[in-house]
Amino acid sequence: IAYETFDRLDEALFAGKLKDAVYLDVRELGSYVSGATYNPGHGPDSRVSRITIVLNLAMHLTATPEHIIASLIHHMIHAYFLVACGPQKADELDYGRLNHGNHFGKIMYMIKNLSRSGGKCFPLDFGHELRMVRGNPYGLDYPHHASPSAFHNRSRKSQPPSDRSYCPHNAKEVEQAEIDVWYRGLCEPLLGLPDCVRGLVIYTLKDGEFMELQRAQAGRSDTFVELIFSGKALHVPIDKIAAHTSIREVFSKSRWLEIPEGVNLETFSALYDFLVNGSYGVDIGEMQTIDGKGPPLIKDFDLDSSQPLLLDIRVFKLAHDLKFEELQNVALQRINDQHITREDPVAVLREIYCDTPDPHADLRLWAHGFMTRYTTPAHFWTLTKPYDSSNLKELQQSNIHRSRFEKLVEHGGALHLDIAKAHEEL
Asked: Which among 182, 174, 180, 267 has a CA at the least distance from the CA of 227?
């Protein structure tokens, strides 16, 4: 019966996820358990690398068909959690993969309630007493090898190894109402999360490359948090956020943090690197001079030059959106610590002014200093005015930048006002 119904039960109840992942066996397992479900490769047959379900032969020989099927479904629920969540580890017994707690109970009650016909439910339960002598004069059924007193007083055997389920007939029951409260509070909200958070794969990031990691191998869910970027969930060890009060506060409300749309991979990589490694971006030492100061002076434009300034501004904006104050402060410090730049200055200003009609005050202050930055004359009697050697003049009159800068100014708004103030100051 078990072999004939397994595939149909799998399709009807578990979306076919068990068929190629589970090996079904029938063996003698003593007289106390209905069977056992084993981690992949840990079953009695060492040649089998799949999850193994073993039904106890002694307990099923005289059971009715409906009780055999109920017992099989019981173990298929255990197997489903191993497929979905990975093998149970020795230090994760409370995680719920192979025990009979809320996780098991939710699926068990769902199947049991769906099976209700004419007011009678399928005999699916937390434990299954299969080998019964029927028709005793008291209307009770007891195992035919035990007396009523033995049935009630039997002591619980010691727990088996952590790589398998332990399924005695008297497994502790959890009330459906209690499970429903747990489910509504903890599980139901997760259904609204992106698919990547509920998927089997999670990612890490190394040198801008996404590296796949099976979620089952990522450790307990309370040991890491997840950044959701471009349809992918990225793994961040929880101890990496411990030093950052602001982002720790963000993650105190949820284990997931969605990165806003429009953030490119380079900017996200900077955020990820800062969290995991404590720093991000290229060394800005080449953008500094011995006696220099920031904001930087515009030097000869080099298309192949690194663009730390543009990246730092983008990181600052992302950190502000995420309320990640520590990263925001680091990005602003890097912006102010650059003394020269060979980046496209128009692109830098566009990044500050064009995304929003009201740029962040710190970025506007820096942009004002950037436009009014000029070369200090070598001699105090030099007659040139500050404007003549300023970044603003370079932007307004250079053949390389002038036309694009004029198009940027046409947007008006805060940039137009800040240019007027900078010109007046110079």
From this structure: 267
Q: How far apart are CA 241 and CA 223, in angstroms?
A: 11
Which ranges of 31-101 does DSSP label H, i.e. alpha helix? 57-60, 65-85
Closest to 206 measured CA to CA, from 136, 272, 137, 151: 272
Cβ atoms < 10 Å from Cβ of 426: 18
pLDDT-based confidence at 103, cuts 50/70/90? very high
In the prediction, which pLDDT does 303 show?
Answer: 79
Q: Which two tokens stand for residue 162?
A: 């952590």
All residues at 6 or more sequence positions from 277 whose CB lies less than 8 Å from its CB, including other chains: none
The radius of gyration of the chain's CA atoms, rounded to the nearest angstrom, is 33
Report the run of H or E that residue 55 belongs to, with start and end.
strand 51-56
Query: How large is the average pLDDT for residues 387-396?
Result: 92
Domain ranges for the chain, please list them.
Answer: 2-192, 282-306+341-426
* H or E element, residue 235: strand 232-237
Range 59-67 average pLDDT: 88
Residues 13 and 162: their CA atoms lie apart, in Å, by 26
Q: What tens digit of pLDDT does each residue of 257-291 get?
A: 999 999 999 999 999 999 999 999 999 998 999 87
Residue among 269, 342, 356, 275 nearest 308 (CA): 342
Q: What is the pLDDT of residue 147?
A: 39
Bridge-based pairing state of the strands 51-56 and 142-143: unpaired
Name the 3-class secondary structure at 29: coil
DSSP assignment, residue 154?
P
141 contacts 133 by C-beta, under 8 angstroms:
yes
Cα–Cα distance for residue pair 127/104, rounded to 1 Å: 12
pLDDT per residue as tens digits for the range 174-187: 999 999 999 998 88
Q: Judging by beta carbons within 10 Å of its beta carbon (0-12, 13-18, 19+), is residue 309 exposed, middle or buried?
A: buried
Residues in CB range of 316: below 8 A, 6 or more apart:
328, 331, 332, 335, 360, 362, 363
One-letter amino acid identity for 107? I
Which of helix, strand or coil describes residue 368?
Answer: helix
Give the helix/strand (H/E) hosting 227.
Answer: strand 224-229
